[in-house]
Every structure is written in structure tokens, then in C-alpha cells.
Amino acid sequence: MADPDFHDHVADHADHFADHPVRSYVITSGRARPSRNTIRPETLLRVDPEVPVPVSASRRTRELLALCRGVLSLAEAAAYLKLPVSLVVVIASDLVDSGHLSIRSGPPRHALPDRDLLEKVLNGLRKL
Amino acid sequence: MVSASSEPTPYVPATVAQSVKILVVGAFGVGKTTLIGSVSEIPPLRTEETMTVASVGVDSLAGLDAKSTTTVAMDFGRITVSEEVVLYLFGTPGQRRFWDLWEGLADGAVGALVLVDSRRLEDSFEVFDQLELRTGMPFAVAINEFPGAPRYATGQLREALDLLPDTPIVTCDARSRESCAAALSTLVDHAIRFPLPAKASV
């Protein structure tokens, strides 16, 4: 059971991760689902510096906006904020709707990435 | 594992406009995080999700409810493969009870690299079930060659794992950057040569 990939005990991580159900719902104003479904863990986000942070922004919102001064994926932002991906999707969706965050990478494809993109990935991997 | 807050955030280069992902899947302790760490340009990051899961099989304990809340850790890494494209590698637990976690992950993925420990082949059966029955994603198999693990011929492995003739099987050392990059290349090459129709319903 001592597996480095996996942890089965919420209690072990309670101090590190703010993913207790109650707190998560407080952070997202009670919502479990995002306002849009175009944000995936690998979606690249960046703050729009022209749009001022709303005065009513919560601490988590401010932290996310501060983090996204450069290009970062949603998963990276979640990891740095120590929040579950599903929760950061909700916060980020609101910020995309309000124009504070822009989605840098194109909308995720339900189909496989196109051949041209795959070729770029393959060429990059072969250079490693 | 997560870098200290005093360190600057390693941002994706500003020229990058597209992101893709590969899932690195496999059983407990098979070396997913090691592989990701070997090829990632950033130290592997971890996110955690709380999931309600059905307790089944060997994980069930007498007297516990059939469902319980579990924290699932997902480690991931990043490779900027060109000026415009960044590749993310998401380590995903393969057990049946975590299949719901795959819902948002499998969507749009290049494919999955299935990491297998040749001493515990049977641990990966559930992973193959998931890939074949639920995702329709291209996948390749990488045998992580642990020291002292038995070495099988590719044909034997293909038969033992009940894999199609087209499914690539490679050996790799999850600690080696070159070896892991080669295994990932095999998967991407496979995805290019054998394009699968997108999953019908999501």
C-alpha cells in the first residue's frame, strides 16, 4: 500500500489540500459545476492585464489571477494553489466569462488532435 | 514536490499557443510518477481530487460502507515540444474504481502510455479494459524493466495481455529520460499511423 502514486487517506492530506467538501463549496459559492465546459486540465490560461481585478474578488480568485500573469495550464494553477482541479475549473470559468482570464490554447477537441499537431509533438519528443 | 512559493513560477513560454496531453496510466507503484519526472521540464506537480468511489474487490474491508470518499492524487509533468506546442503528461491510476476520474482527462488526449510491471502483469488488466471499453484512445504499452523482473518476448507479452497485433509494446526504464521519450514517441507515432474515430458519445 506504500505507493508513491497514490494516497488513500484523506486525513493524511487534510493539512495540505483544501479539498474538504464544505470549504470547496464555499469557495465556489456553492456550485459544483463550471459555467462553461471548455476548460480542461491542460487548457492554457493567461490573465488579461488590461482588465482590473474586481474589488469583490475572493482570495482564491485573486491568487489565481496573480498566478496566471504568465501562461499556465489549469492543472498547474491548481497544483500551485493546492486546490482540486475541479474546483479551479469553476473559478477559472467565471474569470473567463468576465474577461479577466483568457484561454490561450484553442478549445479542446473531442476528437483526437490533428495530424499536424501530432507530428509536432513527435518531432519534439524525438529531440529529447 | 510542489516548488516553494519563493521560487519563480516556471511559466509556459509565451510563444506556446496549443497544448496536448498524454495519459500515463498503470497500476499502483508501477513507476508512473518516475516516468513523468524523467521527461518533464518542471518538477512533477500534484493535484488531488476528492472522489466518492465504490469499494470493490481487494480494497473492500468488511464492515465498511460500499462507497467511501477517497483522495486521488494525480501527478503530472510538462514538455515544451516546440515553440508553439506544450505536451502535458498526466499520471492516472488505472483501477476500475477511479474510472470516473478519466472522464475529463481522456477527452482530447493524444493517447495513453500504459506502464506495466512484468512481475505483476495481471495488475494492468483493468487498465486495458478501461482503454478498450470506455475511451477508444490509442495506446501503447511500455514495460518498465525493474531490476530482477522477468524478461518476456514481445509475443509472449502480447498474448498474456491479450493485445491487438497493432498495439506497440516497448520496454523502458522509467528513470531514463531517453528511454521514456522513446516510449512516448512510440505512442505518438502509433496515434498518427492508426487514427481512431473519436468516441461517439461523451
TrEMBL record, chain A:
Species in which this protein is naturally found: Actinophytocola xinjiangensis
Superkingdom field: Bacteria
Protein name as annotated: DUF742 domain-containing protein
Stored Pfam families: DUF742 (PF05331)
From TrEMBL, chain B:
Annotated protein name in UniProt: ATP-binding protein
Keywords, in A-Z order: ATP-binding, GTP-binding, Hydrolase, Nucleotide-binding
Chaperone listed as a keyword: no
InterPro entries found in the cross-reference section: Gliding_Motility_GTPase, Gpn, P-loop_NTPase
Transmembrane segments: none
Domain of life per record: Bacteria
Recorded family membership: Belongs to the GPN-loop GTPase family.
GO MF terms, alphabetically ordered: ATP binding; GTP binding; hydrolase activity
Species of the source: Actinophytocola xinjiangensis
Matches recorded under Pfam families: ATP_bind_1
